Amino acid sequence: MKMPPFPIELIDWNTVEPERHPGEAGHAEWRVKSFGEGDSRIRVRIVDYSPGYISDHWCLKGHVIYCLEGGMDTYLKDGRVLSLRPGMSYQVGDNAEAHASRTATGVKLFIVD
Q1: Can you tell me whether residue 3 is helix, strand or coil?
Q2: What is 54-102 written as a DSSP string?
Q3: pTM, rounded to two decimals
Q4: Digit-coded pLDDT (tens) for 75-106
Q5: Cα first-last separation, the chain
Q6: What is the sign of the dihedral through the CA atoms of 81, 87, 92 and 94?
């Protein structure tokens, strides 16, 4: 990840309006801030998946994901399953490994991509 130059900014995530995104089941609420422009743009998010959430697509975007609360399983197209719990993170590069997530209990994540 190459970060373009942008000024420092303090974010109060409680004031960022959530965007609702439906899944195959359940929904995700994203609080999003973006920095930079074009291909160098960095997106920083707090994402809440509802209990019972199942992703509706295979994702190829790279992310750094840190679990704040709850837990989720990330399914890889090759059949592996990664279980993410509070205090754990994973990172995957763009176009590296297709992944899709689901959670039985709900989860809150901090994501940079």
Answers
A1: coil
A2: B-SS-B---EEEEEEEE-EEEEETTS-EEEE-TT-EEEE-TTT--EEEE
A3: 0.92
A4: 999 999 999 999 999 999 999 999 999 999 99
A5: 8
A6: positive
Looking up residue 41, the CATH number of its domain turns out to be 2.60.120.10
C-beta separation of 53 from 25 below 8 A: yes
Give the integer Cα–Cα distance in Å for 18 and 30.
Answer: 5
Residue 84 lies inside a defined structural domain of this protein = yes
Question: Which residue is listed with tokens 């994973």?
Answer: 90
| Residue 101: both structure tokens together | 């997530």
Q: How many domains does the chain divide into? A: 1
pLDDT tens across 22-76, in order? 999 999 999 999 998 887 889 999 999 999 999 999 999 999 999 999 999 999 9
